[in-house]
Amino acid sequence: MRVRDFICQIWFRLALLTPILLFTYACRCGTPTPITGIPASTKTIQSSILNSTEPLTLVHAWATWCGPCREEFPELIKIHNEYASQGLAIILVSADNPDDFSIVETFLLEQSSPVSSFIATELNQAFIETLSLNWSGALPSSFFFGSNGKLLIEWEGKKSYAQYAETIEILLKEITGDTP
Amino acid sequence: MKKKYTLRLAISAVAALTITSLAAIDIGDPLVDADVKMRNVDGSRVSINDIKGEKGTLVIFTCNHCPFVIDWQARMVELSNTYKEKGFGVIFINSNDSTTKGDSYEDMQKFAKEHGYQFPYVVDETSQVAQNFGAQKTPDVFLFDAAGELAYHGAVDDNGRNPEHVQETYLKDALEALLTGKKVAVQETKAVGCSIKLR
Asked: What was the pLDDT predicted at B100?
């Protein structure tokens, strides 16, 4: 067991350098992934969407200094707690300064977030269009992707738990309901 | 085929329930709300028509505290002051709900003074101007040509965080094109910004 713990510790340190590995850490090590802010390039964020193993992936763009984002965050946690076991993956993408990743980490811990958050290192047009060609760039914004990485639904602005839940239930029902 | 069809139906149903869109002006469209008088930080009431320039008109939706505004602030003000002297009309509009922390009229007066605005900084008292422009975030740049048609919409440049790493000076290039009678090469760009807190 000690060897396994040691390997997992090393894995986590390496994963911080190559963020995509963080998403496999918990599965392989069988322990909760330490919640943190993870600076990530647009390519890394795109890869995490494409590599999501769940039928529905919610990518949520936010920031700690954004009032509506802070107000909405507890709703997202409730959404995760309700739907993570039903086929929903949540990928958080913060627009905070990656040099101040501890601010993101502190906020996530204060909120008892069950998931870590990427911190986008490139807030340019390529980043915006990786999530959606229609996105104006305003925060907060949410994007629902199917398992093939296809964008299904998106919106800008704060939403309630009920609005998230309604969307997720319709999409999950249609996606998984037609699976042979 | 059936799966695609039913999923499309589901998406349509969700979209109808959750997505709202603002009317937005497109490249080539004329100025909107140009005659709406808005309260300037000097106490006067100013419309876009009042400040239109012979070379063009620069309208920027902005605020006092958004980190992206702060990142671009020095560049926005420098460009605005510089090109105002070259024949462009310039106006900065704050469409945020004034109860938003840091967005009161007094905060705007202080901010404009601190940053050396040589142009009006006005309150969009109903947020209707932002909605009619289709402005959704701060900062959001709209540049109109001498005929009052939208020639450029988008970001100040391609790197808010690191001025030293800017590679594309979108707004400056657009201003320079209009100044010299050329067509703006890059007419639309995007950048991440703070949502406008509509009233």
From this structure: 79
Chain A residues whose CB is inside 8 A of the B69 CB are none
Same-domain status, A29 and A43:
no
Boundaries of domain holding A18: 1-34
Q: What are the structure tokens assigned to A16, written together?
A: 């911080």
ipTM of the complex: 0.81
pLDDT of A177 reads 76
Runs of H (alpha helix) within A21-160: 22-29, 42-50, 67-83, 101-110, 125-131
Query: Which region, left, alpha or beta, applies to residue B169 given φ > 0 means left and ψ of -120 to 50 means alpha?
Result: beta
Mean pLDDT over B108-123 rounds to: 97
Q: Is B55 helix (H, G, I), strand (E, B) or coil?
A: coil
Tokens of B36: 């709406």
Q: Judge whether B19 is closer than 8 Å to chain A, CB to CB.
A: yes
pLDDT above 60 for B162: yes
Query: Which residue, A141, A143, A97, is CA-closest to A122?
Result: A97
| Residues pairing with B90 in the sheet | B58
Cβ partners under 8 Å of residue A87, min gap 6:
A54, A55, A56, A172, A175, A176
Shared domain check, A42 and A18: no
**What SS3 class is residue B143?**
strand
Tell me, which fold does domain B23-195 have in CATH? Answer: Glutaredoxin (3.40.30)
Distance between B44 CA and the closest CA of chain A, angstroms = 31
Chain A contact for B40 (CB, 8 A cutoff): no
